[in-house]
Amino acid sequence: MGQALDLGDPSRDEPRSERRQGFWSKLKRGLTMTHTELIERIGAAVAGRGVVSEETLEELEEGLIAADLGVATTMELVDAIRGRVRAGQGGDVVALRQMLVDEVSILLLDVPRLEPARSPRITLVVGVNGSGKTTTIAKLARRSLDDGEKVLLAAADTFRAAAIEQLQVWGSRLGVDVIAHRAGADPAAVVYDALQAARARGVDHLIVDTAGRLHTKGHLMDELAKIGRVVGRDAGVWQRRTLLVLDATNGQNAVRQAEEFSRTVAVDGLVLTKLDGTAKGGVVVAIARELRLPVVYLGVGEAAEDLVEFHARDFAAALF
Questions:
Q1: What's the pLDDT at 256?
Q2: Are residue 145 and residue 42 in the same domain, yes or no?
């Protein structure tokens, strides 16, 4: 039924501003594997050299590619560093790390921003099975509950009976109702019923689990298009978002998954999960740059509070 999610953290009752203070440490802890490998490579690249040479930049390039920033993103970053070094902006390891933080921040901030969340809203969550999609939905619900919002879940991944049951387990643990039909039912019908229930119950945030299979793209596209028509017709003034959940441990394969989903459905933002279990956290930068999609949340652990809001500068600093 999926991994257990700790829902008993005392931070549940803390306001968002106080919880935010702990996000930095959680982000750094989640990126430890990536950070350690990058810092070791950066240190090796500048060891014994008084200035950042072309050889140093080549070694840096290898390190960034190994962290799954991707070839195109790495070349763009290294070219920017090369220009700054030539302009005399420093050549030791501290200066190099700071330049990397600056340039990655600039790159991430260049991505279009997602409109701030407001109530009432509906969030469609898409992603392949195994990416952490259902656990992410539970964490999103938990965040909304922490903010005093009334939440409803919709089990519109009717292709797998286990997906419905898993969401119902999370709903029970969270104290949140789940609108569900039998396995194999029409997903759009589930969303329709969920919207009606959400409106009748005064819900602030309706979160919808959708089918997570790419091997039948035509069928998936038809399902999502039908769900989109239902939302467009019946959601009225509700804010609408589609978040794509990707497993960061998949590295460049996560980039390809994001491309596939983006061709199938209009994705508004990304959630990168399992960053605490990979040395390839640089894939976050590659995906944001290549797809020009905003990263909204990062999963840095299994506890309920380990879904952190994405902030470009914090991420870049934790990375290096």
A1: 85
A2: no
